[in-house]
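Weekly structure sync, notes
Attendees: PL (lead), two postdocs, one rotation student
Agenda item 3: pending single-chain targets
PL asked that the sequence for the first pending target be pasted directly into the notes so everyone works from the same version. It is reproduced below exactly as submitted, 245 residues in total.
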Amino acid sequence: MIKIALCDDEKKQQEIIGSLLFEYFKEGVNLNTYTEGQKLLDYIQWEGKEIYDLYILDVIMPQQSGIELGRKLRSMGVIAPIIYLTTSRDYAVESYNVRAFHYLVKPVDKEKLFSVLSQAEKLILQTKANAVTVHTADGTMIVKAADILYAELYARSVRYYLTDGSVIDSQKLRISFQKAVSSLLELRNFMMLGSSFVVNLHHVKKVGKKDLLLINGKTLTVPKGTKNDLLNRWMDYWLEEKNMH
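Predicted structure, written out during the meeting:
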C-alpha cells in the first residue's frame, strides 16, 4: 500500500487528480488530501516524516507556495518523492531546488501522469527494499539506507548517523569497516570518504574545498586528494536522478 499526500487548494483539482490516482493504483493506495500546506506540515510533525511515500503538491497556493512547502518538508527530513502540479512552467527550476521528482503542467495529461507515477512507484519500492541490518548491543535493527546521513568507524564499531538526529552503534567489529558497510557501498548513493567514513550522497548539500555540507548542517572533512572524485560522484548521482525522471 502506497501512502500519498495530495495538497491543492482547489477541491475540483483534488477530485480530478485523486480519481486518476485511484485509477492507476487501484486498491493499492492510501490517499490523504489537504487544501493548506500548513495542515500537511502539522500532520507530518505529529505522525513522523515517513508517514507518506509520495507527495503531490500544487505550486500556486494562497497561504504558501508548493515550493516553500517542499522546502519545509525537506528541512523536516522528508526524502519521499515530490511531484509538482501547476498551470505555469515558470517554477520548474525552483522545483528542482527542493529535489522534486517531477513537474507536471495542468491540465495534467493522464498518460504523462501515469508514466511519472510508474517511475515514482519503482523508486518507492526500491527505497523500501534498500535497508541494512545493524546488530547492536540491544538487539538487531533494520535501518533504511535512505535514513542514513553517514556512518563512521567509532570505537571499533560502525556508528550510523540518521536523518532524524538519532545515532546507532553496531556491535564491535570483527571485520574491516569497509566490509561492514559493503551493503551500503553497493548502492549508488553511498561512497567511502577516506578509510573510516561512508556518506550518503543524497544528503550532501554542498562539496567544498576541504569539507562537505550535509542537509542537517553537519560538515565532514574531505580527505586530501579526494575532493575531485567526491565532487564528480556527487554531481553524477544527481544527474542520474534527474535523467531517471
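Discussion points:
- The mean pLDDT is 89.
- The helical segments are 11-25, 37-47, 66-75, 92-97, 110-129, 177-180, 182-185, 227-244.
Action: rotation student to compare against the earlier draft before next sync.
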